[in-house]
C-alpha cells in the first residue's frame, strides 16, 4: 500500500536511543489519511510519539467500510524500496499486482508479503466483484542494510500456523510465537500475530523480553495489560516483558507487533526507506523517469506521481519523540 500524502513528510527513524527498555503503557492515537477516492485509513506509525516498533515502521488500519456500492480500495501503481509490505485482512479481498509479474488476490487471514529490496512497484485494488465489507491493516517492515538491496519478490501464504489457548486463536504472520514459526521471510528478529479473542477471555501471552512490542486494536473491546484499547488505536508496550495480560470484554481482534529494536538509523520518505538524502532523491527521479522500479501490467490507470521533496537535505537520525 502506498503513502498517498501529497505533502510527504520525512520520518527520521531507527537507532536504539529512544527505545523504552522497560515495560510501559503508551497509547498511540491515529492520524486519519485519505487513501485514494473512497478509503480512509487510521495511521498509527509513524506517529508523533513513536516512529518504530522493532523493524515495524508503518501501520495503517482501515475499515470496516461498507463498499457494496463503492469501488473500494483503488491504489494505482507506485514504487517501494528498502522495506517489506505486509497486507492483512479481516474482511474483503485485495488484488495485488507488481512489477515482478505477481498477480494475487489476498483474502482474510492470508499473508501477502512483498519484499521490495532494491526496487519494486505494485498496485492494490478491490476486485470488481467484491465483498460488502473491507477491513484490514497494511504494515511495513524496514529492511536492514545487509538485505535492503535483495531482489524484489512477493509471497502469498494462505495456510499460517496458529497458537491456541482458552478464548484465543493467534494466527502467526511473521516470526515466532510460543513455539510456532511463520513461513514468511524475515530479515530481522520480529513477530507479527493476529489475536482473535472470545468474549470473556482472560489470559497471558508469552513474550520475548529483548523485544519491544505494541498491540493494534482491530475490533471489539479488549484490555491489554489493564489498558482499554479501542479499535483503530495502538498501545506501545516497551521492552522487558515475559508475558502480556489480555482480557476481552467482547469478541475482539488485536494485532501483536514486536521485534528486536532496530539499531540502524534511516530515512523514510513517501514510499521509500533509505539511509541518505541522495538515495531518496535518486529513487524519486528513477520513478519519475520510469527506470529501475519496473512496470505493473494489467492495472487500468496511470501510476502515482511522487510528491516534491521537502526543502533542505533529508538526514538519517535516531528515533525521535
TrEMBL record:
Name of this protein: Pirin family protein
Domain Pirin C-terminal: 193-290
Species for this entry: Streptomyces atriruber
Family to which the UniProt record says this protein belongs: Belongs to the pirin family.
Source species, domain of life: Bacteria
Domain Pirin N-terminal: 41-141
A Pfam family per the record: Pirin_C
